[in-house]
Amino acid sequence: MTVSTRPAPAFVPSPAPVAEAPRRRNALLFRREPLLLDCGQPVNNVRVAYHTYGEAREEATLVLHALTGTSAVHEWWPDFLGEGRPLDPARDYVVCANVLGGCAGTSGPSELPQIAGQDAPLSLRDMARVGRALLEHLGVRRVRVVGASMGGMLAYAWLLECPDLVERAVIVGAPARHSPWAIGLNTAARSAIRAAPGGEGLKVARQIAMLSYRSPESLALTQAGQRRPGVPAVTSYLEYQGEKLQARFCERSYVALTGAMDAFSPSDAELRAVGVPVLVVGITSDVLYPAAEVRACADQLPRATYWELDSPHGHDAFLMDPQELPERVGAFLRG
Ligand SMILES: CC(=O)SCCNC(=O)CCNC(=O)[C@H](O)C(C)(C)COP(=O)(O)OP(=O)(O)OC[C@H]1O[C@@H](n2cnc3c(N)ncnc32)[C@H](O)[C@@H]1OP(=O)(O)O
Ligand SMILES: N[C@@H](CCO)C(=O)O
């Protein structure tokens, strides 16, 4: 593994946003042959919601979103997408799809099989196979993959499941497998959902998760003191974040996607067989996926470059405080 210590190349982002309002589209896939899920269940007619940016080409950059993300990259990663940025629609064909089992347009648990009255478990490899079908639908033959958080774990799944398609990958703030700590946090979140279905549990799940997406230092910087008399700022912050997620996300998707992440467990041999260059980025204050853990996974990849984003803001620093991350990613993608 190479550890990158070089200063990033000069990069001057344009202040201009993406020019046209991008439109979400749907593709109906697996109409004839079903998708065979890893759990053994077949699924026909999988709807995939996706955004594209730039002119259609046979080579694309595929962006993989995080747990509660959507295909609308322009909404959640503006530092990365746009003129002069690492994903530049004037130069690149950028594709992002909502994952199988999500709740932002792609077929979710209510449209997928059940086993013994429970939603069938989904895997990250199932999601990669659906992504491959979308690329075929779009006429894309080769991709550079960029994913953060759950999207980073999904990038590992792409490397293993579709090695013929991926020419390089960027993995930000993600391990190849969940630690007991990460599974424990998700277990507590799912327990909250099961204990209080209908929305209250999802709010608690988000509060638990938010603590793992920030850091002690970040909360000390942003949520010290009281918001209103007698109410610690962090308490009202977590309550508000719980309300916000409950308004925009689905608890069955939350259970399905966290379950898929927890179950993903590629072998060391699979990781050692990855043949393409991969940029792996750890975040110094990430308490969910500590940088050492992210780096240890990079160590398994024969052609990995590792770099660390130095931020006090924890796991979500890739969204809140990316600093020179866009330049690093842009330079790596350009090869
Ligand atoms: C790769 C991917 O796909 S990532 C997917 C992207 N995910 C999303 O876009 C959805 C998830 N969003 C997030 O995780 C966050 O919004 C982030 C990381 C993007 C930004 O985090 P932050 O800068 O801390 O902003 P965050 O949204 O957490 O908090 C700010 C909000 O909390 C409110 N707030 C802040 N402090 C408090 C407080 N003490 N009490 C109550 N409310 C508070 C603010 O008023 C603001 O409200 P608004 O959202 O209505 O404007
Ligand atoms: N905060 C982001 C990243 C979590 O991994 C999300 O809600 O999807």
Low-confidence stretches: 9-15
Q: How many domain modules?
A: 2
Total helical segments: 12
Stated plainly, the CATH topology of the largest domain is called: Rossmann fold
Strand order of the largest sheet: 1-15-14-11-10-6-7-5-2
Compute the average pLDDT: 95
CATH architecture of the largest domain: 3-Layer(aba) Sandwich
Report on this structure.
It is a single chain. By secondary structure, the chain is an alpha/beta fold. The protein folds into 2 domains: 2-178 and 263-333, Rossmann fold (3-Layer(aba) Sandwich), CATH 3.40.50.1820; 181-254, Rna Polymerase Sigma Factor, Chain: A. 37% of the residues lie in helices and 19% in strands. A hairpin with a 2-residue loop joins strand 12 (226-228) and strand 13. The chain is globular, with a radius of gyration of 19 Å. The two termini are 16 Å apart. The relative contact order is 0.15. Mean pLDDT is 95; it is low at 9-15.
In summary, what is this structure?
Belongs to the AB hydrolase superfamily. MetX family. With 335 residues, the protein is α/β, with parallel strands linked by helices.
Secondary structure layout plus pairing:
Elements: E1 2-3, E2 25-29, E3 35-36, E4 42-43, E5 46-53, E6 59-64, H1 73-76, E7 94-97, E8 114-115, E9 118-119, H2 124-138, E10 142-148, H3 150-161, E11 166-172, H4 180-195, H5 200-213, H6 216-222, E12 226-228, E13 231-232, H7 233-248, H8 251-263, H9 268-272, E14 278-283, H10 291-300, E15 304-309, H11 317-320, H12 325-333
Parallel strand pairs: 1-15, 6-7, 6-10, 10-11, 11-14, 14-15
Antiparallel strand pairs: 2-5, 3-4, 5-7, 8-9, 12-13
Helix pairs in contact: 2-3, 4-5, 4-8, 5-7
The structure holds acetyl coenzyme *A and L-homoserine.
Acetyl coenzyme *A binds next to helix 7 and helix 11.
